[in-house]
Specification:
Length: 190
């Protein structure tokens, strides 16, 4: 069976290009769990040890560089994490759909991301993962579209997928969407 990211990696490898994907979200949304899926499925994956003081997970798989970090509770690190916005080709934005109390914080962070000078003018695909969908009180993807104002996003292809990062449910479809988007954008730019 193909690994979770093989589809994306094969495409990128063919183009002999480096693609950078950001994995963002509040702490506890499921970023590390998603990333561990990837690592478990791909022995060829190389870990890059973070060297700075806040929590950044970086790894590379073939020509794809993944950078993940927490967006919450560490405003003093904001300029450090925003440094990674430059040169990214796609964003995976993970939301804990069971964390209704912090959905307002998620919206604030999303709005800041979308307005950031390195992001605002770029036609970057954003994949939203409505994670922890297995929990009984989780918000539906339709609710999240409304709460986060996703229907108002301009000039960026976006997609929302319900996921259970523990079992991996929904991840394959989601990554395929992101791959197709990155491919389309690269082809259209030629
Ligand atoms: N029920 C449930 N728990 C999850 C899911 N994804 C992650 N978790 C749990 O949520 C907690 C935070 O996940 P983690 O990946 O560390 O979040 P991070 O802070 O964004 O890296 C951990 O206890 C995970 O086991 C999910 O889809 N469903
Ligand atoms: Mg983590």
């Amino acid at each position: 069976m193909m690994g979770l990211f093989d589809h994306l990696a094969n495409f990128v490898g063919l183009r002999k290009k480096q693609v950078n994907v950001l994995v963002v979200g509040l702490n506890n949304s499921g970023k590390s769990t998603v990333i561990n899926h990837f690592k478990n499925q791909n022995e060829r994956c190389t870990d890059i040890i973070p060297t700075i003081g806040f929590s950044v997970e970086k790894f590379a798989f073939k020509n794809i560089g993944f950078t993940a970090f927490d967006m919450s509770g560490q405003d003093r690190y904001r300029s450090l994490w925003e440094h990674y916005y430059k040169g990214c080709h796609g964003i995976i934005f993970i939301v804990d759909s069971n964390d209704k109390l912090r959905i307002v914080v998620v919206k604030e962070e999303l709005d800041m991301l979308l307005q950031h000078p390195e992001i605002a003018g770029q036609k970057l695909p954003i994949l939203f993962l409505a994670n922890k969908i297995d929990l009984p009180n989780s918000l539906t993807t339709i609710n999240l579209v409304t709460c986060l104002g996703l229907d108002k996003i301009q000039n960026k292809p976006w997609h929302i997928q319900a996921t259970n990062a523990i079992t991996g449910d929904g991840l394959q479809t989601a990554i395929e969407w992101l791959t197709d988007q990155i491919r389309d954008i690269h082809i259209n730019r030629r």
